[in-house]
């Protein structure tokens, strides 16, 4: 298959492109940091808002797209206009261009659990929880979920929206993501360093390893869309884990003391990223998506891919 | 209250502005046909996509907005770019401008049952039916429902989205609405003319009289938003009526024969506009919105406002 991946030099993108190449696909990657796109892919450097770049990516045909490029949550709050330009306008243009190229390409869209909003129902989230985003990022992602459904219903594309939970463990350094603390915990404990976690140990997250996430994207490229809800959108299965339990498991697997972690809650940050209620995702499971299975497996997977 | 009404010269807009003026409000109306805006309102002529016009409308303060201006369904299918420009971009700009003006204004958004999509579940539609639009119009309206929820959750505006069913009876003539046949039936029978209905008599619509619709907008301006769902969006209560029953009731009230109506179904049109399943709208009723009560009352109301 000829597959275009936007954000191909990003954290999830690199893992996904490696898998797609290993399966013999012809991959065109787009990224502002083209050097980060895995070797073997056709690498296009630039901003996904660039019309010329979009046309170049689609030239020569395209059976499927995976749209990962985004202005992430923290950056979108700081610069809502940039989020609107990239997360709405550029993506809408890309969907229209992909549709105009013909062949009703599979369009896999990386949405986010941020579409669900704050506060989440304490009793739990399931496939019937209404979307009521509060973050700019979540709002724009949710708007484009609707666009994917509409263009799919019109037969212009064959869309699949997957809502990503926290993906572990991202590289260290500025990512524009306020949820970076979840990943930084892995880096600190693997290095035997102390870590100040901005939540209580009881704080709960929804998480998936990057390897499992990339597998889910591979699945999204070929899954039967008749198994999806009418919205074409599924919340990916994730494990609900307390930060305390995750710290203990990471420490155990790294052979260090969980005492390296001190807990200094930032109430606002914990409310936004560490107060996730029980999650059930029957729609995604029905369509063949999966989580990591256990906390131990998630941690082992995340540690094995730590950069 | 200082209230800005976009599309104030349109069918629903004129009825609404009349009511708002009668209640002593200070109304600024925007319309491409400013001459159609009822006397007594400050009338601004122009396209809602015009930034200068938006600023002018908001200058001098604004407690609430009712956003009716739209590229309607048929026109949006013909010109999706115009729909994107007006139904998404211009509205997004307007919400941001209204928010920036401060005071967290009430923002009442006229959405549409087109957000629900095709085909609708045969067993019926309720407040949990997922949005899966097929029309460009419905897709764009649904995208902006999300934006209203997001900006409301952020405290930037105090949003209320009402999804309009078929509103009866629109003036004769080109409206850009494919559903015009529902209204044209009223005009024909009142004039004692024969009418060819492009559906079977068994075709079902969801309808509301324009007077009831205007009352619902007045209610939306002051209703308690804590009574609304987290999405801030409600499908307005509507009567589900068969075209045959409606024709008989109109004929009865006009003193003409229902035999004036002949039925020549256009299967595609009937599938789109005449196949509405049972509808329940507990969320809207909980928040105080209402339908016309009975078919006879709806028809009487629509006939009394026929232009």
Automatic annotation (TrEMBL), chains A, B:
**Presence of the UniProt keyword NADP in the record:** yes
- Recite the UniProt keywords alphabetically: Carbohydrate metabolism, NADP
Q: Which Pfam families match?
A: Epimerase
Which stretches make up the NAD-dependent epimerase/dehydratase domain?
3-196
Entry protein name:
NAD-dependent epimerase/dehydratase family protein
Would the keyword NADP turn up in this protein's UniProt record?
yes
Q: Which InterPro entries match?
A: Epimerase_deHydtase, NAD(P)-bd_dom_sf
């Amino acid at each position: 298959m000829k597959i275009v991946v936007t954000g191909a030099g990003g954290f999830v993108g690199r893992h996904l492109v490696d898998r797609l190449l290993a399966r013999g696909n012809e991959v065109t990657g787009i990224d502002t940091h083209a050097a980060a796109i895995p070797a073997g892919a056709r690498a296009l450097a630039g901003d996904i808002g660039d019309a010329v770049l979009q046309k170049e990516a689609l030239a020569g045909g395209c059976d499927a797209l995976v749209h990962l490029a985004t202005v992430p949550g923290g950056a979108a709050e700081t610069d809502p206009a940039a989020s609107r330009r990239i997360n709405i306008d550029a993506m809408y243009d890309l969907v229209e261009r992909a549709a105009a190229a013909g062949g009703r390409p599979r369009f896999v869209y990386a949405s986010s659990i941020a579409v669900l909003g704050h506060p989440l129902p304490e009793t739990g989230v399931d496939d019937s929880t209404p979307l009521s985003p509060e973050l700019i990022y979540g709002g724009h992602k949710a708007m484009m979920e609707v666009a994917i459904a509409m263009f799919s219903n019109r037969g212009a594309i064959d869309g699949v929206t997957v809502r990503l939970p926290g993906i572990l463990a991202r590289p260290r350094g500025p990512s524009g993501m306020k949820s970076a603390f979840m990943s930084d915990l892995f880096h600190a404990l693997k290095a035997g360093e102390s870590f100040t976690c901005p939540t209580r140990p009881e704080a709960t997250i929804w998480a998936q390893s990057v390897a499992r996430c990339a597998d889910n994207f591979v699945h999204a490229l070929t899954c039967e869309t008749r198994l999806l809800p009418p919205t074409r959108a599924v919340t990916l299965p994730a494990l609900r884990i307390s930060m305390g339990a995750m710290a203990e498991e990471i420490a155990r697997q790294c052979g260090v003391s969980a005492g390296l972690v001190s807990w200094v809650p930032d109430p606002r940050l914990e409310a936004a990223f560490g107060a996730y209620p029980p999650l059930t995702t029957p729609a995604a499971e029905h369509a063949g998506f999966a989580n990591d299975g256990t906390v131990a497996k998630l941690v082992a997977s995340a540690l094995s891919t730590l950069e």
